[in-house]
């Protein structure tokens, strides 16, 4: 036997034992040493923390006290600093605007400062103004004391959050005189802020305190400005203050009454809503009573004491800018020591957790299993997304008339929102000259509604058009902050409240050649890189559809609508007026007016069943005529005339161009539409009117003998009448392109296509929807 074949069994046993020792005993011993080291460090830390934490208790409470004092001072600053500011602000206001200045200041402060309940303003003559929160809503209530021979009354105006008047009421004042009130009498002859005793505010049932300051306006009338500050919010702050585990704080006034503090609701209930009875209860608040007694003897500062076998640390501090208010803080000394013990135990526990986690992290197999599970889940999600895209493309493929430009492509935007999770999806078609984008369809998934016809001008949003011209798919998270999409967000996205936008340019063939023919926009989409393929397919379909729209022949584009009905109408009469044309310097100008705005309201013939029908319609027609007169005066229209079943309204009949004429007429048109809708619906009559508008030069002047009749004629009047006759639906305001160009920055329009007018040719038609 060779020597190298001889085996020593003892040596084999030694190797096995050494391996076990290295693989098992050494790691266990190492873990035990780590545990012992961490435990020793934790015990030493606990002892050091326990010893030092009590030494820092006083400094901690001093810091908390300063923090609370500062917060209470800031809380009352609206009454102290704000009162000084209001005194200077109102005293320098002219007498004619003192009321508005007070209301403006009070409304702004009430919206910004939640702890303020209301503002008063009384004067030496007995005048009184009040602005306060509406107890039944989120708006404001304005109150004014009005004096009359029949007696004093309170005039109340209730406004919503946007400042609009909701309702107006009046009620007797019952000989109310602000000069007899404590907040007025206590401050009228004093300089600086005067605090009154806490009271229960009648409308909100909250405890408030009033700060008053005197002022003298520019009319030399002495006044008192007062603010009611709610103490309930101050109590909530003190009640939620974490001084220690069981430490609390309260605020007392100069006479020992509780202003705010821990369990304030119980204090109010115990006193029966009587502020004079809100005193420290020896049974439930003995620690605060002890601190308050020491404060009255020793003054402000730290006051340690022992009560019922427990050590307490109490502190007292007066509050600046108040009427001798004092802040009392009480905390058991054991809270801080227990904190040290708890901190030590938690340190040991955390150390043990760290060791256990270090051992568990060696289990790479479990980690690998989780990674495999995540990959499988990702594959499943991608498969579901692929199935969703396939179903969407199948739905698009089976939709009839998708490439027919005369049919609506609603399925494209609907499937885009479903696949990408977008809030809104829009198809925009580029005009052949590249100066504008027209919305072919816009689908809002939230309301499940389609819209379209909006126009975006390159002049108004040059950066957005540059982004489209770049030809790449881009997703912008904050559209309002990106200079490329800030204009798009303002004009398109802001009304819907969306934030992100994905821009996908559509490449195709137009009259110029191959290039950008449109763009797809997705708002608030869950867009991911794997959706690019689906979006490119939809963009290709859209490109074919848009390219078909550019292949329309010129004869199709210029096809004139049937105007035979309009040409067969009788000549309009202008011999009846609802409102005489205004005179300037005693004369009415005649000749060519460069910028006249004309609106024609066309009413359909009512159905006359018998004589009684006519007698019932006459009061309705008279009411509409009166409303038209009121609206004409409200917007300073030049003239309103009756011509058969048409109302003709004019503005801007001046020798010099009037840039506000078309705007005033547009506002009048919206008001007339709402008024006529309301009047007709009240009378249970279907709307039977349409409105047309145009803007441009016209001839005008007085005609005939005595009396002379003012008349206006020209292409502008003719086009306005054609717009009214060609409106698609009742109540629609149809306008020419000149009106659209003048008002598109202020109002929303939708495109109606083209129209043909004799001697004028082809033009664009728009429908005025509403204000922006």
Automatic annotation (TrEMBL):
It is found in: Cell membrane. SUPFAM superfamilies: GAF domain-like, Nucleotide cyclase. It is a multi-pass membrane protein. InterPro entries: A/G_cyclase (IPR001054), dCache_1 (IPR033479), GAF (IPR003018), GAF-like_dom_sf (IPR029016), Nucleotide_cyclase (IPR029787). Keywords: Cell membrane, Membrane, Transmembrane, Transmembrane helix. One of its GO terms (biological process) is intracellular signal transduction. The chain crosses the membrane at residues 21-43. Pfam families: dCache_1 (PF02743), GAF (PF01590), Guanylate_cyc (PF00211). It comes from the Bacteria. Residues 600-724 form the Guanylate cyclase domain. One of its GO terms (cellular component) is plasma membrane. Its main location: membrane. One of its GO terms (molecular function) is adenylate cyclase activity. This is Guanylate cyclase domain-containing protein. It comes from Acetobacter oeni. The lineage of its organism: Bacteria, Pseudomonadati, Pseudomonadota, Alphaproteobacteria, Acetobacterales.
């Amino acid at each position: 036997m060779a020597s190298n074949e001889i085996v020593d069994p003892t040596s084999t046993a030694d190797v096995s034992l050494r391996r076990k020792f290295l693989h098992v005993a050494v790691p266990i011993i190492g873990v035990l040493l780590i545990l012992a080291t961490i435990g020793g460090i934790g015990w030493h830390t606990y002892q050091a923390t326990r010893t030092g934490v009590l030494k820092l208790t006083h400094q901690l409470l001093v810091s908390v006290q300063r923090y609370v004092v500062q917060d209470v001072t800031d809380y009352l600053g609206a009454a102290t600093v704000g009162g000084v500011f209001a005194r200077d602000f109102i005293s320098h206001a002219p007498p004619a605007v003192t009321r508005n200045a007070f209301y403006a200041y009070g409304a702004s402060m009430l919206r910004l400062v939640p702890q303020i309940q209301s503002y008063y303003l009384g004067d030496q003559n007995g005048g009184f103004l009040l602005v306060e929160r509406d107890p039944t809503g989120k708006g404001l209530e304005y109150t004014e004391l009005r004096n009359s021979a029949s007696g004093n009354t309170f005039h109340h105006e209730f406004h919503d959050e946007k400042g609009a008047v909701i309702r107006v009421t009046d009620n007797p004042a019952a000989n109310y005189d602000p000069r007899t009130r404590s907040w007025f009498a206590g401050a009228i002859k004093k300089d600086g802020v005067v605090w009154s005793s806490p009271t229960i505010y009648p409308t909100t049932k909250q405890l408030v305190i009033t700060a008053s300051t005197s002022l003298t306006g520019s009319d030399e009338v002495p006044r008192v400005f007062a603010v009611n500050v709610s103490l309930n919010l101050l109590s909530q702050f003190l009640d939620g203050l974490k001084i220690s585990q069981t430490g609390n704080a309260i605020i007392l006034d100069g006479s020992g009454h509780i202003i705010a503090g821990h369990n304030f609701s119980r204090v109010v209930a115990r006193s029966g809503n009587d502020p004079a009875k809100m005193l420290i209860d020896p049974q439930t608040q003995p620690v605060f009573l002890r601190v308050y007694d020491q404060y009255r003897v020793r003054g402000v500062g730290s006051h340690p004491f022992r009560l019922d076998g427990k050590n307490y640390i109490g502190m007292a501090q007066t509050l600046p800018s108040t009427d001798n208010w004092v802040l009392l803080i009480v905390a058991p000394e054991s809270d801080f020591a227990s904190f040290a013990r708890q901190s030590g135990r938690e340190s040991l526990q955390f150390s043990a957790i760290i060791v256990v986690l270090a051992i568990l992290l060696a289990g790479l197999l479990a980690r690998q299993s989780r990674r495999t599970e995540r990959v499988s889940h990702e594959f499943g999600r991608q498969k579901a997304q692929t199935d969703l895209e396939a179903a969407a493309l199948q739905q698009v493929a089976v939709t009839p008339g998708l490439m027919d430009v005369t049919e609506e492509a609603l399925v494209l935007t609907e499937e885009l929102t479903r696949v990408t999770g977008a809030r809104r999806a829009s198809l925009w078609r580029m005009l052949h000259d590249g100066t504008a984008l027209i919305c072919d369809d816009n689908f809002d998934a939230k309301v499940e509604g389609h819209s379209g016809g909006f126009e975006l001008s390159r002049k108004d949003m040059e950066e957005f058009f540059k982004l489209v011209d770049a030809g790449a798919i881009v997703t912008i998270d904050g559209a309002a902050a990106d200079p490329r999409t800030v204009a798009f967000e303002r004009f398109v996205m802001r009304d819907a409240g969306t934030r992100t936008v994905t821009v996908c340019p559509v490449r195709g063939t137009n009259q110029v050649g191959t290039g950008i023919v449109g763009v797809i926009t997705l708002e608030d989409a869950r867009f991911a890189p794997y959706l690019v393929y689906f979006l490119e397919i939809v963009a290709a379909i859209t490109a074919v559809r848009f390219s078909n729209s550019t292949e329309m022949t010129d004869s199709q584009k210029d096809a004139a609508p049937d105007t035979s009905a309009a040409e067969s109408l009788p000549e309009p009469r202008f011999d009846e007026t609802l409102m005489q044309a205004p005179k300037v310097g005693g004369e009415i100008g005649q000749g060519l007016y460069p910028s006249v705005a004309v609106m024609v309201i066309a009413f359909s013939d009512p159905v006359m069943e018998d004589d009684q029908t006519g007698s019932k319609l006459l009061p309705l027609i008279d009411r509409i005529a009166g409303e038209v007169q009121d609206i004409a005066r409200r917007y300073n229209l030049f003239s309103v005339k009756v011509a058969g079943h048409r109302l003709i309204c004019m503005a801007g009949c001046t020798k010099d161009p009037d840039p506000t004429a078309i705007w005033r007429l547009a506002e009048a048109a919206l008001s007339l539409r709402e008024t006529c809708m309301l009047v007709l619906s009240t009378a249970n009559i279907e709307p039977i009117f349409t409105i047309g508008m145009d803007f441009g030069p016209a001839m005008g002047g007085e005609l005939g003998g005595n009396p002379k009749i003012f008349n206006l004629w020209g292409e502008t009047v003719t086009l306005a009448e054609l717009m009214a006759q060609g409106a698609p639906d009742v109540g629609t305001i149809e306008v020419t392109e000149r009106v659209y160009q003048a008002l598109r920055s202020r109002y929303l329009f939708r495109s109606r296509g083209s129209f043909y007018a004799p001697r004028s040719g082809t033009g664009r038609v728009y429908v005025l929807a509403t204000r922006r």
